[in-house]
Write a structure and sequence with these properties.
Structural class: alpha/beta
Largest sheet: 7 strands, parallel
CATH architecture of the largest domain: 3-Layer(aba) Sandwich
Number of domains: 2
CATH class of the largest domain: Alpha Beta
CATH superfamily of the largest domain: NAD(P)-binding Rossmann-like Domain
Radius of gyration: 21 Å
Shape: globular
Order of helices and strands: EEHEHEHEHHEHEHEHEHEHEHEH
Strand content: 5-15%
CATH topology of the largest domain: Rossmann fold
Strand order of the largest sheet: 8-7-6-9-10-11-12
Amino acid sequence: MKKILIAYRLKPEGLTELEGGYQVTMPADKPTFNREEVLAMIPDYEVLIPNFSFFTDREMMDRGVKLELISNYGVGYNNIDVAYATGKGIAVTNTPNATREPTAEFAFGLLLAAGRRIGYYDRKLRTPEGVSWSVYAESGLPVYGKRLGIIGMGRIGQSLARRALASGMEIVYHNRHRLDHAVEELYRARWVTRDELLRTADYISLNAPSTPETYHMIGEKEFGVMKPTAILINTARGNMVDEQALAVALREKRIWAAALDVFEHEPHILPELLTLDNVLLAPHAGTRTLEDRIRMSVEMVRNIIGFYEGSYPVSRVNKVK
C-alpha cells in the first residue's frame, strides 16, 4: 500500500477516494507539519503533498528515498525544485482545473474593488474622519469600456477575460506564444507586445507562471511605462513584482492603484504597502472558499490515483521515465 504524506491538514471530504487503497498521514492537531518534521518522516513515503511555507528542495528529495510522486495542492509549483525532481525520476503534478475559476473570479473582484475604490470607501467610512460625500471627491475609475491587459493568457487568464468581456472591457494580452485565432475570437482578445500592453492598458493583470524569466518582470522600468491611471492586479506569484518599486510607484502616484493577493515573502508583507491607501491587499485567498479547496483536494487525489492506477488523467508538471 502506497504511503502519502500530506504536509498540512486537509478536510477529509476531499480525500475519500484514497480510503482503502492508500495510507495517509497528515497533521491531526495543528495546521501543518514544519520542515523538520517532514524531513524526519519523508523516508517512509512514496507520495508527498508539500507545504508552500518551505521549499521542497534537494535535501527533501534526497531524504525521500522512496519518493515517486510530489502531488502539489495548487496550480503554481514554484515551491518545488522541479528540475531536481525530474533528474531523480520523481513525478510532479498540480491542480490547474480546480483553481481556474475561483482565481479568475477573485482577480476580477480585485479589479472591480481597486478601480471603484470599494475597499478604500469601506475603510474610511469606519474612521472618525469618514469619507467625502461630495459629487467628485475621492472618485474611483470605471471598468466599462476600459482596456484590460492580461500577461499570461492561459486557463486563468482566459477565465478572467471572459468575465471582463461580459463587463464591457477591451481585452489585450501578452504571451510568449500567440493563441490560436479561434481562442482570440472567443474572447475578442488581441495579442500585443509587452511594451504596448504596459503603455496602453488601464488594468494590468498578472496571470503567468512563476519562472526565472518572470522574476521581477514588473519593476521600476515597467512602472515608468504605465499610465498614471493604471491599476496592477497580481493573483499569480508575488516574486513577479518588485515590491519596493511598486511601493514607490504607488506613493509617488506613478500608477493609480494596485490589488495584490500574492507577495514575494509570504506571509510577510512589505510594511510600506500596509500604509498606502491606493493598494488593496488579500492573503493569497484566490481559491479560499470551502467548496473550491475541496475541489482542489479531489483533483490532487485523482492525480495520485491516476498516476498509480491509470483511472484518471494526470496533470503532470514534468516528464519522468
